[in-house]
Amino acid sequence: MIVKNVPTIDDYLKKTAHLLRQIGGRSASKRQGDPERPLITVITIVWNRKETLPQTIMSVLNQSYPNIEYIVVDGASTDGTLEVIKKFNDKIDLWISEPDCGTSDAFNKAVSMSKGDFIFWLSSDDWIDPDFIGMAVGSLLESGADFVFGDMVMYKNGDQVAICKGEKNYAKSLISGYPRCNFPTMVIKRECFQRVGLMDMTYKFVADYEWFLRLYLNGGNGFYNSSLMIHRGVGGIGESYLVQSMKEHLRLLRQYGLPKTKAMATYLYYLVRRGAGHLVKLFLPAVIYKKLRRVVHGG
Fold first, then answer.
1. Nearest to 147 by CA among 110, 167, 120
2. Pseudo-torsion of CA 43, 226, 133, 182, nearest 10°?
3. Which range among 26-40, 59-73, 274-288 shows the weakest confidence by mean pLDDT?
4. Which residue pairs, CB below 8 angstroms and at least 24 apart, start in 96-101?
């Protein structure tokens, strides 16, 4: 069932290309899936990430799984990112560079052009181990689930700072308003996008959660595999604009008639913690503040 008022693959296929579109890459037209080795499309959305993008691309090219279609969509970067992409022109199956309406628009575009049986969105600041795709495909085939997900290893200034664990029984937290499904780790059947539509671009900060919730409410089922891990830097647009993200989150819960108590409590906790941190930094000497941080964060 396609949900009303969200774009579909057909909608995007009917769109006229932007006048400034640049396009390249090797043709993936001969790539096909089979029952034992389904075709998986890896999508990277990028804008002004020339420093981190090479690591992302190389982590895809170094996968042990043999049947991968790689699509990169650039939002008309101005920092040299496009030049980085062109260096991999004979390795990337399809790349597009043009102005767009944000990450959800770019992702929707990529899904509409994809040929894979499965879809994986790898952000331009993230990277994966060589066996990630193979394990994800194996989990999907064995479980029969609509998607699989795992854990996120978080880094800051090159150092590992945390591991965000997925939640096997994700449905409860999904409905309560603060899911631990680690969307950046999800490998999803393309059929799911045909069933419920693409990303809702009216959401800037929680579009992934909205799509995931929509899939769940339309019968989508997932499988957690703790062996699946992606590596990513600390940060993200939702963390940079916490208040705006909170407003969208609550709007989403209202839209679907879900309780808002847990989400509000979680955001309040982050706001208080962030505010307290700024106050402590403001009034304590720098040396004492740094020592206090080391104690709080375990060294």
1. 120
2. 0
3. 274-288
4. 96/21, 96/22, 96/23, 96/71, 96/72, 97/21, 97/22, 97/23, 97/73, 98/17, 98/18, 98/20, 98/21, 98/22, 98/74, 99/18, 99/20, 99/75, 100/18, 100/73, 100/75, 100/76, 101/201
Distance CA 196, CA 4 (A): 9
For the segment 97-114, what is each residue's pLDDT rounded down to a tens digit?
Answer: 999 999 999 999 999 999
Phi and psi (nearest 5°) for 249?
A: -60, -50
Domains and their CATH numbers in the chain? 9-235 (3.90.550.10)
CA distances from 29 to 15, 75, 194, 293 (A): 21, 24, 20, 53
Query: 245 and 288 in contact (C-beta within 8 Å)?
Result: no
- Element (DSSP H or E) covering residue 154: strand 147-156
Residue 178 pairs with which residues in a beta bridge?
Answer: none
Tokens of 14: 């009917």
- CA 144-181-112 angle, to 5 degrees, is 65
Distance CA 73, CA 111 (A): 11
Distances (CA, A) of 249 to 50, 111, 198, 213, 254: 31, 24, 18, 12, 9
What residues have CB less than 8 Å from 297, skipping those under 6 apart?
A: 161
pLDDT tens-place string over residues 249-280:
888 888 888 766 655 555 554 455 555 444 44
- pTM of the full predicted structure? 0.85
Q: What DSSP character marks residue 183?
A: G
DSSP letter at 114?
A: -
Q: What share of the chain is helix, strand, coil (3-state, %, to 5)?
A: 40, 20, 40
The answer to whether 193 and 9 have CB atoms below 8 angstroms apart is yes
Q: What is the pLDDT of residue 298?
A: 47
Taking the C-alpha atoms of residue 291 and residue 90, their distance in angstroms, rounded to an integer, is 50
